From TrEMBL:
Source organism of the structure: Parafannyhessea umbonata
Domain of life: Bacteria
Keywords: Aminoacyl-tRNA synthetase, ATP-binding, Cytoplasm, Ligase, Metal-binding, Nucleotide-binding, Protein biosynthesis, RNA-binding, tRNA-binding, Zinc
Domain Alanyl-transfer RNA synthetases family profile: 3-466
Family named by the database record: Belongs to the class-II aminoacyl-tRNA synthetase family.
Gene (UniProt): alaS
Record comment regarding domains: Consists of three domains; the N-terminal catalytic domain, the editing domain and the C-terminal C-Ala domain. The editing domain removes incorrectly charged amino acids, while the C-Ala domain, along with tRNA(Ala), serves as a bridge to cooperatively bring together the editing and aminoacylation centers thus stimulating deacylation of misacylated tRNAs.
Key word Aminoacyl-tRNA synthetase present: yes
Chief localisation class: cytoplasm
Catalysed reactions listed for this entry: tRNA(Ala) + L-alanine + ATP = L-alanyl-tRNA(Ala) + AMP + diphosphate
Name the UniProt record assigns to this protein: Alanine--tRNA ligase
EC number(s) given by UniProt: 6.1.1.7
Comment on bound cofactor: Binds 1 zinc ion per subunit.
Localization (cell): Cytoplasm
Length: 466
């Protein structure tokens, strides 16, 4: 059976409405919850229902939520992670039970009227001590050898550092032996996680304690791009209908064919498809480029997209072409994209041309510096800092270009130079009254910067310790 993204989305929401859930529109990518930088799961907008400060008349809710996960930005090269994605979900705030949630999930994915997935290719994982979930799956015919127990990291879910959390059970699809991987939950793509059923029952506090929530809840999330790829018999998120149309646009703009050139051009095509879509949705929700918080995430994504367009040899400004394709493909579902199209175009164009100029100047300097280095030598932190300071050339781009040429960047020295610069700014600001006022801003911006983009924080990037 084959289904389009739009068909899956509509069928899911309708299925849960029939079960008595109330249909909610996606909330904005800008969460109401101040502890959260960007919406990262369907349950975000229902937090108060979980905590019991709000009650719902219906037995639960269903939605298709826009999500953005900065922690996955480093993973865009793989087959299953996007920065922006759509999450289908069904929710209960004491209304229906864990048994119902499991029964309905199994019905939806296996019934020929809905997804009709073959049962022998489905695998479930549960939290290590959750015998109840094992017995529930088994009661519907899932064999014990298709159910495994996983620990806290995989199967205990929390929306954030505090708030509702609990054990979960995830559903995996076996994509077949041509994919790498031995078991659900490993790093391979053979067993692809596509739906997470969370049984939220605790409310984690600042001090780490976990009192019970007022009732036992259900919070599920199914990645729409993942299930679309499965339903379209594709091994990657990027090859379902929606993402593939953006890959195709990149092919057209660059003249580079996907899966026909090199891994690095494929990766650039994926980054472009992903980042351009994320950027379009972020601006559509009113986020503007800036140097902190979510505006910083936007700026980084946008600039990285522009940079990868360059790598692919795309000439001139091109990012609004992507935005138009995103709106073409998803505007029926997300009408804000249509309503805000001129805003989206304007912001993208301005940022793209500003960054284009930066790139030209910075790239010339960086190329000259890299030419001077011996094979495998490390690029000095001072040069990286100068690129940042003089040309506004983002450090992650410096690293990406340097690493592509086989050089690591001395990040300790770069960080040191950044710290010294902040210190100098602070001291000069202390000298007079005007400076004192500036100092307040400096402190404030430090504070805001603590919500800074952490998408590139990883221990090991292409063999370079950071
Ligand atoms: P993974 O282990 O693959 O990173 P996850 O366990 O972090 O996924 P959950 O927090 O359980 O994901 O989110 C629920 C569902 O949302 C996942 O089962 C998956 O289908 C989808 N999902 C999560 N992260 C992404 C992403 N970066 N891109 C696309 N879909 C995603
Ligand atoms: Mg994840
Ligand atoms: Mg997972
Ligand atoms: Mg999961």
């Amino acid at each position: 059976k084959t289904m389009t993204t739009a068909e899956i989305r509509a069928d899911f929401l309708h299925f849960f409405e029939e079960k008595g859930c109330k249909l909610y529109a996606s909330s904005s990518l800008i969460p109401e919850d101040p502890s959260l930088l960007l919406a990262n799961a369907g349950m975000n907008q229902f937090k108060e229902y979980y905590q019991g400060t709000k009650t719902m008349r219906e037995i639960g809710a269903t939605s298709c939520q826009k999500c953005l996960r900065t922690n996955d930005i480093d993973n865009i090269g793989d087959a299953r992670h996007l920065s922006f994605f759509e999450m289908l979900g069904n929710f209960s705030f004491g209304g229906y039970s864990k048994a119902d949630a499991i029964a309905w999930a199994y019905e939806f994915i296996t019934s020929p009227e809905h997804l009709g997935l073959p049962k022998d290719r489905l695998y479930m994982t549960v939290y290590e001590n959750d015998d109840e979930a094992i017995e529930l799956w088994h009661s519907h015919g899932v064999e014990y050898d298709h159910i495994s127990r996983l620990g806290e990291e995989d199967n205990f879910w929390a929306a954030g550092p505090t708030g509702p959390c609990g054990p979960c059970s995830e559903i995996y699809f076996d994509q077949g032996p041509e994919f790498e991987g031995d078991a659900p939950g490993d790093d391979g793509d053979r067993y692809l996680e596509f739906w997470n059923l969370v049984f939220t029952q605790y409310d984690r506090q600042e001090d780490g304690s976990m009192p019970d929530l007022p009732h036992r809840n259900i919070d599920t999330g199914m990645g729409l791009e993942r299930i679309a790829a499965i339903m379209q018999h594709k091994g990657s998120n990027y090859e379902g209908d929606v993402m593939r149309s953006l890959i195709s646009l990149g092919e057209k703009l660059s003249g580079v064919e996907y899966h026909a050139s090199s891994d690095s051009t494929d990766k650039s095509l994926r980054i472009l498809a992903d980042h351009s879509r994320a950027v379009t949705f972020m601006i559509g929700d009113g986020i503007l480029p800036s140097n902190e918080g979510r505006g910083y995430v936007l700026r980084r994504l946008l600039r990285r997209a522009v940079y990868h367009g360059r790598l692919l040899g795309i000439q001139g400004a091109f990012l609004t072409t992507y935005a138009h394709e995103v709106t073409e493909v998803l505007g029926d579902q997300y009408t804000a994209l249509v309503e805000n199209q001129s805003l989206i175009d304007g912001i993208i164009s301005a940022e793209e041309s500003r960054f284009g100029a930066t790139l030209n100047a910075g790239e010339n300097m960086l190329d000259a510096e890299l030419d001077k280095l011996g094979e495998g030598a490390t690029l000095s932190g001072e040069v990286a800092f100068k690129l940042h300071d003089t040309y506004g050339f983002p450090i992650d781009l410096t690293r990406e270009i340097a690493e592509a040429a086989g050089h690591c960047v001395d990040m300790d020295a770069f960080d040191q130079a950044m710290t010294e610069q902040k210190e100098r700014a602070r001291q000069s600001a202390n000298r007079d009254a005007w400076g004192k006022a500036n100092n307040v801003w400096a402190a404030l911006s430090d504070k805001l910067a603590s919500t800074e983009f952490c998408g590139y924080d990883s221990d090991d990037v292409d063999g370079c310790k950071v």
